[in-house]
User: Fold these one by one.
Assistant:
Number 1:
Amino acid sequence: MPLLNPKPFESDTRADWCPGCGDFGVLAALKDALQKSGRQPHEVVVVSGIGCSSNLPGYIRTYGFHGLHGRPVPVAVGIKNANPKLLVIATAGDGDEYGIGFNHVVHAARRNDDIKLIVMNNEIYGLTTGQLSPTSKLGQKTKTSPDGSIIYPLKPLPTILGAGGTFIARTFSGDPKHMSWVIQEAIKHRGFALVDAISPCVTWHNIYDEVKKLFYRLEDRGYKPDDENEAYKAMNAQDGIPIGIFYRREDKQSFQERLAEINGGRWAADNVKSLGSEIAQSLVQEML
Amino acid sequence: MLMTGNMAAAWGARLGRADYIPAYPITPQTEIIETIAKWVRLGEMDAKLVQMESEHSMLTAAGAASLAGARVFTATSSQGLLYALEMLYNISGWRAPMMLINVARALAAPITLEPDHNDVLAARDTGFLQFHAETCQEVLDLILLAYRVAEDSSVLLPAIVNLDGFYLSFTREKVTLPSEQDVSTFLPDYNPPNPFRANMPVSKGATVLNGALYSYFKYHMHTSSIRALSVFEEAALQFERIFGRSYSPVEPYMMDDAEFVIVISNSFSTIAKQAVRRLRERGFPAGLLKLRMLRPFPSSLVARYLSARRGVAVFDQNISLGSGGIIYPEVVASLYHRRNRPQLLLPVIGGLGGKQITVEEMEKIFEAIKNEIGAESPDPIFLMRQEELETTKNMVRTAKEVQI
Ligand SMILES: Cc1ncc(C[n+]2csc(CCOP(=O)(O)OP(=O)(O)O)c2C)c(N)n1
Ligand code: SF4
Ligand SMILES: [Mg+2]
């Protein structure tokens, strides 16, 4: 069905990230990908945690949910299990998803929950103004590692591959077309998709130039994301920063598909009736 | 020296010679751990600061390090405290003294950054001793006092020192820094009873699976907590001798002949004191009782100070939804068996989510106490100024219009 609104996901709330923040690129790519995937705003929920990145649901015209630090995945899973017709996208930071809430990511990958997780990875805690993150590099100076970090950074992609992840990709907000394409593929994917979106924090840890110099597209090198061992190798590449889809398999049922086999395809949200506008009005009146 | 409440807390760790500081950032606390990180780097503080992956692991590591014999300091706020709550019960059960600073911030949802005391009062029943600060000086001094009490061999419980986010955490005040030498006299090195050290193998964190044994341990912790009150009073006497500042578990303000009294804690005490002074100038017999120690709850002192007053308002900057203020019933319980208890105990709730409270509002509370005396069951007061109500209604209305 053709969309009447030429930019259906455009919100009139202006994003208040710092000028130049990588998160602007992620927001633009997500809107573009949603539109290209032919979705309507009411078919999509964007959920988040707490962080600069997690303010994203406020800047896009879909259902939205601003949750707790580290918990976007269980929020997304809860929504998906109540109403699997919705496209559920979690957008959050590296602190959120690779740190305090990483266990949820591992288990969502293991179950192959049909949710899409976009981690805006800036290797720093942006909102709390510049502390060590799980992806901060060895030697990186932050406010809580003034001598340089002595902790090895987490490698989220191979970890999630080991956990049974079925779609694992990396992209870069300095390559908007690529980012939109990766998100479109994640949306098409059957099950859990992890998109590690390199999204530099220009205020506390600006890695724009470094990534710009080092990144290359896997697709340009004829890489095929269908082999687990090749995926590990590509993820551990030492010759730059590969972006693209490292691993993808579509033969594994999603958790929700398996659940539907047990529950006969009936879901809680099937019983939900929309609120009539009079009821909605009177509720609002009551609150005033 | 001029410094923020957060800086004063960091000085508490430094002067208190904390060995180990597991950390995790959260607004409005982060300045504390960042300051310590800087000092450690500059060699001004001989300690290990380690950023963890969450408050849960931070508190777990903190309690365990205390058992292993370290003096431990950490800090959090709001969601962080709640996330770690499971560990708070464990750490007190381990009898592991340590310092946890809470920079008060209201809890989600809805999400906000400014303070009320629902976060710290969620830790009320955990076994952590609780001290609440009104000024930056008090933040520093209470840390030293609380370490002393927590590590006392007759107490051996962890402690929380609370300061209000924004109102205190980011406000600069004059703070007198004691000398390192004086602090070591007052607070000697921690000498844990059974640390994990060579030739003394002990096992901690036992399972009991037995109601009687479980009750025994809980009762033991309870009596140790209650003992902390007299240990605090004794320590405070020495503190005053050395540093010249005196602290009691509750602080009476213009109470001598006060007939109408407000019970309050933390940073809004300063505004309430201003109201008391203004009322006094007009000949109104107002007084104030500040709660500095929340756990153990200083019931006997509260009863002693409030008996024979005509009316008392209890100001709760928190809400137990479906019941009311959290401190109110504790004050009521302290007074119930007093023959000359006040005629009126008025519940007041205000300052939720950091909502500002003016001196005029505080004065209104005193008027309300006077007016409500003799009332059958006085209506609880929920503070909101007319103009605040109007603005809020407008915001809700705008949100509605945007939505439709
Ligand atoms: C339980 C809990 N602990 C700590 C915080 C404070 N906090 C808010 S955002 C954040 C980290 C932000 O970093 P990241 O997730 O990488 O997002 P970014 O701001 O970099 O986009 C922290 C520690 C919190 N909100 N909740
Ligand atoms: S602080 Fe960093 S992550 Fe946050 S909005 Fe600014 S540039 Fe972006
Ligand atoms: Mg980040």
Note: DSSP finds 14 helices and 15 strands in chain B.
Number 2:
Amino acid sequence: MNWLTDIIRPRIRSIVGDQKEVPDNLWHKCPSCEGMLFHRDLQDNMNVCTHCGHHLRITVKERLAIMFDDGRYETIDLPKVAYDPLKFKDRKKYSDRLKDSQNKTGLKDAMTIAKGTIGGQNVVIAAFNFSFMGGSMGAGVGEAIVRAAKEAVKTKSAFITIPASGGARMQEGMLSLVQMPRSIIAVEMVKEEGLPYIVLLTDPTTGGVSASFAMLGDIHLAEPGSTIGFAGRRVIEETVRETLPDDFQTAEYLQEHGIVDVVVKRADLRETLGRMLNLLMDPQGDSAGGTKKKGSNAKVNGKAAPAKTSSGGKNKSPAAKATKQIQAAQSAAKSAKKNKKKSAKKPAAKKVAKA
Amino acid sequence: MSQLDFEKPILELEAKIAELHHVSGDSAVNIADEITRMQTKASRLLQQAYSKLTPAQKVQIARHQQRPHFCDYISALIEDFTPLAGDRNFAEDHALIGGLGRFQGQSCIIMGQEKGHDTQSRIKHNFGMARPEGYRKAQRLMKMASQFQLPIITLVDTAGAYPGMGAEERGQSEAIAKSIETCLRTDVPIITVIIGEGGSGGAIAIAVADRIYMLEHSIYSVISPEGCASILWRSGDYAKDAATALKLTAQDLKQLKLIDGIIPEPTGGAHRYQEETIHNVERTIQKAMKDLMPWDKEKLLKSRREKFLAFGRNI
Ligand SMILES: [Zn+2]
């Protein structure tokens, strides 16, 4: 069924929708406000609760579609690795768990590598699939991060990682722990080329994943409400024997503690990234995908760069797109004001440094 | 935990021998013979036990309280040790000690986790579980090593980084990640020895080295066997199975080509033979340093990177 999923599916899907997903008449309950959500509404709202704004988990496919310009991107095959070198077995064989996850998700491992443009700038994204063994990082994932970083270097693209992971894949023992330095080497390659490295922290980012490439971005974005931290809440509670604040280890909490730059709503994601990438990669504002602008920047989303890539994702409904653009424009205007204030302080110094 | 269950018959015998030694001054001709006989038996039992240690037993040995700790290595191997404190931002972390000193005449930076040897010192050193400040001090010292072109020795012995509220608030993840990054950017030789417990991220934070060695009965693991068992087996009772499955012994990791060598411990373990063990570690570091000192900066950085990229590809 794999060939079908990969090759025929995208085309069928655009007509009949994703078969794997629940029927359109289904209702969901928001885990945060317990409000009832009509499936189609939820989908149109990027899996964000229409009542309280809670960000529910989203599949990698959906996420990539809302991030890349026009929802278009190209995926890159994961490199081959030695699976199950430890012949690990707990109550169940690791090789069986792997197969189950592969069958369930149609993926080889917990990682998708995609390339395309955001705000007109070339971007390579390495995104974790939480539904594949909790997004755990073993050799397959580590090797994929290295592969993605090399692609970014080769194509002079910005590199974005999107962790959604409980941490290391313990079924691979020490071979999973060494993915911490290996993924950091990948990031080093990108940084050495002067290319931006941005991390979008999503729910959850913990353990060995948070303590490696995920904390070394030039910029750290986080989705509202995501759990981000090193040790699990329960482990900490058992150690310190006191109850932790409710918002402990949330994206907002981490921002307050200086670890996250911006907490970004899904609806603002593409615009925010596009703006950041243009500021970093197009300092004079004159590249092809140039989006130098004042005030309104609704245009960034629309038809920015000529998309050369083949279709991978699907476009959102027009209604969702419109709301998104309004929200994007509002938040962009807000932050543009902020930026002006900041840059007014010492613009000269910045120019000198650039020259 | 100062007694290992599988060593119980040996310990009993050793206690008897000590007792006999004590009374042998008084009288009895046969006692000397008896002592010799019991000593032979004890060493035979020790030989037997240590020739077929299970991974779970190795976990126990690696955590043994009488095993030489960071400070024991310092006092035996490092002249002019000058501890340097603090991350320059928030605090000094006594769990991860570091400083300047001479190893066989060569000035270097030495750092590692200290678990402490009695209740008071264990509390002081937080049982060898470092907070972000420890890893930020490690980064500071690595940068200093680079600035003055001094080789780095790291001795790893920790159950893991400390899981606490403050540690999280101050960026435990970031501190560990940055520490690994700093290892990768430091252009002087780095030599690591896992002397006891190599616990997960808190261990590898200072173990991204040009040469990585493990003592014969030390362990190095992505998660503690207890933690692994409670997650994958849904019960801590399966820690022994997890210890085997995780392939956390020096012998397993040598086979997986994740370490460069195994440093032998005398039969009976480092907790019985501290001096000999420390001496073996000394000889290994000495040889590694001799190999690495002629390397220039580029070669060091490049081959360290290649070494880690090869992990998993070469098995
Ligand atoms: Zn809600």
Note: The first helix of chain A runs from residue 2 to 16.
